[in-house]
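Before a colleague's protein record goes any further, I have to sign it off. What it holds is a sequence and that sequence's fold in token form. My question to you is simply how this chain folds and whether the tokens agree. Thanks in advance; the entry in question is below:
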Amino acid sequence: MKPVTSEMISQPLFGAWDYVVLALVLATSSAIGIYYRFTGGKQKTMKEYLLADQNMSITPVAFSLMASFMSAVTLLGVSSENYTYGIQFIVINFSYGLFTPVAAYLYLPVFFKLQATSAYEYLERRFGKVARLAASLCYTLQMTLYMGIVLYAPALALEALTGISQVAAILSVGLVCTFYSSIGGMKAVLMTDVFQSLLMFAAVFSIIIFAWIDTGSLSEIWRIAERGNRTSLLNFDPDPTVRHTWLSLVIGGGVTFLSLYAVNQTQVQRYLTIKDLKGAQKALWWNWPILTALSLSTSFSGLAIYSRYHKCDPFNAKYISSFDQLMPYYVVETMGHIPGLSGLFVAGIFSASLSTVSAALNSLAAITIEDYIKPLYLYIRKKPLSSKVAGVQTKLISMVFGIISIAVAFLAQLLGGVLQAALTIFGVVGGPLLGLFSLGMFTTIANEEGSVTGLVCGVAFALWMAFGKKPPAVTLARSTEGCEAFSNSTVITPSPPIPHNTSDYLWIHRVSYLYNGVFGLVITLVIGLLFSYIIEKCSNKPKKDYDPNLFIPPLAKRLRRKMNSTFTLTTLPEIGSSLYNLMYLVLIIPSG
């Protein structure tokens, strides 16, 4: 293995064939959009444009479920996570399998019975318009910020290493994505997700294969990682302030998974592109191995990168300015001499951004037309918006959100530290929203006033928890012993950073970031139930009759048996009945 030198930065990193490969990928994505614009229903109806006419097969939906939230930020971040902190993070994949049946058999049936384009229509039927609007606004802000970050983060990393400017990267991905999402609708989004998912796998596996060739065997990659203390998987410490443990990864990862795959508009809309519930449940089950395969291979690619730089860390040697640049730096340094291969990798990174942004654009268009424009039009004009007009407006809305995402991406480069803040917002909003939906589906005591109060408190607490003064994370040791620029240096292996005095930080701000969503969920549930009970006791409103279809199957079955009587909870101990339904999520379903 030849030593890494600073001259590697100055050599040409992106050749003509690399640009050709990248251009072909972007052109192919656009061509898929054009194809679906002029075939089938030609995206003339809302059902065709937003729900793919509900005739999609399981395989493309399963791939799209994975690709919707496995962005370029994930590919770059997970690999650097395993390089910097070790492979403990892969335990989160266990939570995906544990909570898949919860999403498939409790939440998903409710949305299928509803058959509404907007997932937040459920909240209006269960609670009222205020709950629907509050949740919809949270989602809109969340996804708009996230789209900008998804476009900006890979552009930032790639600019320093490939010569592709941030402007070119953001515009090429943003405009291509907006184009095929706007004209091709959900069918184009789903089919390009399949194509882009394969490129994501190709990008990750190219790193593993080259490291395999470089070291001689996969076992040697593992042995190098083991010597660098990066293979530990047995951290069962119950202390919530420890960054990654089995408990934080399973519980925190599970809440994150449910917030994305059980109640998120982006995923719910994908489920509804399949004609029946069983097909949608199969797609969700198939998503698990596909998601896990990409997650594990991306994690191992972090160890593969470490096998090359275990004696010369590019960050310590000042060859790169961010750990997120590790993966593209490795690619151009090891594969740059092979025409087109660096282009294939960058295409995979771009594809990860394309799949995520296109998913968000289509979902935001659905939310805007269903939650904002249609109700407003009905209020002003006193008649429903025609399907034809709605179809045209939806395409325009998708295009507008695409332009907004590009603008947010350019704004992100001026915000500095807010980049991490925006990513944190994406996580902390998910837990409280999951709590709001759970209050509606798992309990009958929850009402609109109490549930919205719980949502506000949950979001506020999670944000305070996430954005407080936090101690810096302690990384594993990294060496510069093998760097040419450091060959005569007396510094061999940097010592791990000295832990900061934890008394300088509030306990809640030292808690692992994985618990942000968990605390937001719990606060929403507890405040929502308590305030709902108090408000019900203090008001003289008549008791409400419940539609069993608005509740999880076990509770719906109980309600149908009592259709001739009002099923409400009237005493404090009966709050336990609502909590029992919530406990069903954790205890009964995972155990079969």
Remarks:
- The chain has one domain: 6-415+471-504.
